[in-house]
Amino acid sequence: MIEIQAVQGSEAWHAARAKCFNASEAPAMMGVSKYMTRTELLRQKATGIVPEVDAATQARFDMGHEVEAKARPLVEAIIAEELYPIVATDDSGKYLASSDGATMLCNIGFEHKLWNTSLAKLVSAGEVPESHCGQLDHQFLVFGFDKIIFVVSDGTAENMVHCWYYPQPERIAALKAGWDQFEKDLAAYVPEAKEAKPILHASPIDNLPALFIEVTGRVTASNLVEFKAAATAVISSIKTELVTDQDFVDATAAVKYLKDVEDSAKRAKQNALDQTASIAELHRALDEVAAMAATVRKALDKKVVEEKDRRKVEIVMTAVQDLVNHIMKMNERIGAAYMPRIEGGFAESIKGLKSLDSMRDKVSVALANAKIEANATADRIDANLKSLEADGQNWRFLFPDLSAVCTKASDDFAALLAARKASHAAAEQAERNRLAAEEIRKVDVQRKAAAMEEAVKLADVAIASSVADVSDINVAEMAGKAASAAVVRNEDRSGPRITSLRIQISDELGKMNVFELGNVLAYCQALPLKNKLAA
């Protein structure tokens, strides 16, 4: 915080405010101010032209300062601390705020508003209206208050209510995002040449001469020719091209006027008809005037509706296209078309509005809010995408649904990434385990096959040898398993019994594991030496 030594309302104070975004301007920036539109604030900040304060407004300001000074001691009694008015900017010098009072440690702020019955009712219920919240959020941003006491009073204890307002990080973040978007709009702003907005009244239409007709079986006196000429001239002069709000006001008045002309001609005709059965010229003239007024009236009435609807659509579609272009830029920034559709709510924002200027202002506020939402979404997507490569490895392959989940809150996305990494690691470990087991199985099969082949050969040799007693070739004893075949002495070692014996031994060997086969091999390899010793 950087304190500014300037009294509120002084030239130094106004000079400091001109260079910053100010707390009192926050509601207008957000489009919720009762006193200034966002478009008007943009124009003021861009041009530096601020409307002069009239005597009535200045008197209201002076009263506000006077009542605030009277209320300050009452508030000090409530919080049991002294309050000091303060003006300061944040450390960057971008945001400025003027507090009606702050404690010595700047942990409590004081904001005062003139007594207003409706406002006092809200505050007494503990509610700060949205039209004031932005100003208080801005003060938190500048001063770092722990809380603000919001007071409505007329300077007396009898008419004074208050409530506490506390900082909300999400509101302060939204406020900063709003000012960021306002700063971008300000940089791109091109003021339109615009005069002071007048109070619109329908332009006067020349009055037609009073139509009179006297008939006594024939027309005896009439100014019909002059009336028709005047009516033709006036009706032809009515403007049917609608561009400005003034044009719409004039057209609406002209529709009513033409209906009166139409009715007047019809009444005159009927009056004449009441006096005579038929006068062709009178009928034709009056029919022509009535038809002319009716034709122009109906066409103009229809055009008022159609043209205003067209202008509404034009205002809305211009904003829609602006938002589409902004979202395309966000996609370019994050390097992929991951931005979701963002509804600007432009049509809803102008419901019930009559003036084109008010429609444009409401749409501009809605557009700014939609861009703020788009910026926040793009920032979130960008951070989530970067987190996929934060540890030097690209984890995008874990997200075939990236376009659907990339807009998640950072914490939620981080949790999802961690879960998928863990699942991927578990799957990889399972695959490694499977491959290792398969490799071991293959080696076991190969070793067992080789051992079986060697064991069969050695067993065959043992059977064919002239061992006095080979009954100790007990596979169960050597391999730890029961052997169904026993080696018996047989003189005919090439006969069927030997063949059967070989098959039985081969079967038993097939049931053994590698270690058991090793024992058999060791035994069989020792047979030749055993035979020699026996001999």
Kindly give the count of domains. 4
Mean pLDDT: 82
Low-confidence stretches: 466-495
Indicate the overall shape. flat
The percent range for helix content is: 55-70%
Oligomer: single chain
Task: Supply the helix-strand structural class.
Answer: alpha+beta
Q: Sheet bearing the most strands, described?
A: 7 strands, mixed
Based on CA atoms alone, the radius of gyration comes out at 49 Å
**DSSP strand count:** 9
Under the CATH scheme, the architecture of the largest domain is Alpha-Beta Complex
Strand content: 5-15%
CATH class of the largest domain: Alpha Beta
Distance between the termini: 110 Å
CATH topology-level fold name of the largest domain: Lambda Exonuclease, Chain A
Count of discrete alpha- or pi-helical segments spanning 4 or more residues: 17
- Listing every helix as H and every strand as E from the N terminus to the C terminus, the arrangement reads EHEHHHEEEHHEEHEEHHHHHHHHHH
Helix and strand arrangement:
Elements: E1 2-3, H1 11-18, E2 21-22, H2 26-29, H3 38-47, H4 55-79, E3 84-89, E4 95-102, E5 108-114, H5 117-124, H6 130-143, E6 147-153, E7 160-165, H7 169-187, E8 213-215, E9 219-222, H8 224-237, H9 245-275, H10 280-334, H11 346-349, H12 356-387, H13 402-405, H14 410-464, H15 475-479, H16 496-510, H17 514-534
Parallel strand pairs: 2-4, 5-6
Antiparallel strand pairs: 1-3, 3-4, 4-5, 6-7, 8-9
Helix pairs in contact: 3-7, 7-12, 8-10, 9-10, 10-12, 14-16, 14-17
